[in-house]
Amino acid sequence: MLAGRHPELQFVLAAAPHLDPGGLRARVGTAPLLLVQDATHAVVAAARVALVASGTATVETAILGTPMVVVYRLSALTYLLGARWCGCPTTPWST
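Below the sequence we write its predicted structure tokens.
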């Protein structure tokens, strides 16, 4: 979606060196993405914004001074219970 609206943007996936590039490409599909392995700090330092999994990577990204959006994976049950408790929609695209 974002790439379609802003073709000038470049999306880069900083991947750990032990991950299989073919497997990563298969999961990403046809998204316009540059895959870079074993250079995470350089990629994050050069980024205008980063999408970061919660944990040590958020501290590293903060130290590098890169603005970030932090994501965390939940089980479906945890998400549904939390969404009900906080009054959030059960899907991100709900209106």
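The first strand starts at residue 12 and ends at 15.
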